[in-house]
Design brief:
five-stranded mixed beta sheet; YaeB-like fold; alpha+beta
Length: 97
C-alpha cells in the first residue's frame, strides 16, 4: 500500500501541529507521532474502517480529537483530510465532490 496525502490534508496536519505546538513545546510532535501510528494502521488494513460518504472512510487519531478521512484506490490510500472531530463535515465532503 502507498499512502498519498493530498495538499489540503497536508495543510490540515500542519495547522493542527502548529496549534498543539503553540499550546506546549513538543505537543505537536506527540500529535504527529499518533497520526503516524494511525496512518500505519491504514496502510496495513485500509478497509477496516466503514465508508462514511462516497467511498470515503475515517480513522481516528489516538489521544487527539482528529479524524483521518481517506479513500482506497487499488493499492493506494489517499488521505483527503485530517480534521478536528468538531469541524463541519462539509469541509472534507467538499474535497471529494
Amino acid at each position: 500500500m502507498a499512502i498519498l496525502v493530498r495538499p489540503a490534508a497536508a495543510a490540515d496536519i500542519e495547522v493542527a501541529f502548529r496549534w498543539y505546538e503553540d499550546k506546549r513545546a513538543g505537543f505537536g510532535d506527540e500529535f504527529l507521532a499518533e497520526l503516524q501510528e494511525a496512518v500505519a494502521s491504514l496502510e496495513a488494513h485500509p478497509k477496516q474502517y466503514p465508508v462514511l460518504y462516497r467511498e470515503t472512510r475515517r480513522s481516528f487519531v489516538h489521544r487527539f480529537p482528529y479524524g483521518i478521512f481517506y479513500r482506497v484506490y487499488g493499492n493506494d490510500v489517499v488521505v483527503v483530510a485530517c480534521m478536528h472531530a468538531r469541524q463541519d463535515p462539509k469541509v472534507w465532503k467538499a474535497r471529494i465532490e
